[in-house]
Amino acid sequence: MKRPTLRDIAALAHVSHVTVSLALRKHHSIPKETRERIEEIAQQIGYWPDPALSALMVYRQGAKTSKYKATLGWVNSLHQLDRRDMFRRDLFDGAQERCAELGYHLEEFCLGDVDMRFERLAKVLYARNIQGLLFAPQERNHAHISARSFDWDRFSAISFGFSLARPQLDVVIDAQFRASRLAFRKLRSLGYRRIGYASTHEFNERTDCNFLSGFLCEQFRMPRAHRIPVLACSDKDFHAECRKWYDCYKPDAIFAVGGVAYVLTPEELQHCGIALHDIGDRHSPYAGICQDRKLIGRVGADEVIAMIHANRRGIPEAPKRILIEGSWQDGPSAPRVTFQ
């Protein structure tokens, strides 16, 4: 029996095979009624995509030299990308590099600019037929994007991190829970026994409590005598609360996601190991987790482009979480120790 083809569907629906292809990929350029009619015909005649042909098309596309295909949008809630903001900068650079390799241009749109409100951004994106969006980490936790004029069904979009609360998009971010567990285990292997966790409420919320959860998971496995209450306070109280917390518990080492090193004296730092949740780069003098921010940005670009090709648009019913593993780096801030 002959396998049904796109042209068979096109003949029955009285449209071109290109229209059928777009309709079956739910492209927004095809009216909803037409899409549903074509999908019904395809189901009736038993059509299904040929996986071997799809794989061949992907191979051919990958084998070609990448030429310009389209522009993607980098949506920044702040003003123009601050090159001193290393986290956002590295995410953007990684995404931009990957876009260029695949023939895409990544253009930044700054919602912090006076003349760029979300309603105006939507009009610009529509006019320029920009279909893919990468949302940078938001300035504030639990950020909402609720512009009524924004038609999410026209876009494939991801968010970096958990600071964008609504809408819930697919997220690409470092594997924070696992990074915290890795840091705890590495500190233990270096000889530290009483390991503390110092952070702020704001940071814990911004990371969906993943770093905190990973730390508590590992701490729970330790003898009670080695467990120290976590330090979690507001940003404005961090210096004073950290000082009191350290004086009270005298930890052997601290997994720090706040400015602990600026609170302790040089003498105290001689007797307390410090490991950071993100050392920034491999030239850092600190021990801790090296988050591959550029790789996170590259994966974000890959994901949006794959969504465009698969015509996955709109707000997902079940958002995906793509986690990128970090790695441990030794440093002079956490030397190997031997306790009596």
Total number of β-strand segments?
Answer: 14
CATH C-level class of the largest domain is Alpha Beta
User: What's the CATH H-level superfamily name of the largest domain?
Assistant: Response regulator
Number of structural units classed as domains:
3
Rg, alpha carbons: 25 Å
Question: From the 3D coordinates, which CATH architecture of the largest domain would you assign?
Answer: 3-Layer(aba) Sandwich
Extract low-pLDDT stretches: none
Q: Counting H and I runs of at least 4 residues, what is the number of helices? A: 12
Within the CATH hierarchy, at the fold level, what is the topology of the largest domain?
Rossmann fold
For the largest sheet, list the strands in their spatial order. 2-1-3-5-7-13
Structural class: alpha/beta
Query: Largest sheet, described in full?
Result: 6 strands, parallel
Helicity, in percent? 25-40%
- Average pLDDT confidence is 86
Give the strand content.
15-25%
Q: What pattern of helices and strands is seen along the backbone?
A: HHHHEHEHEEEEEHEHHEHEHEEHEE
**What overall form do the CA principal axes indicate?**
elongated
Distance linking N and C termini: 80 Å
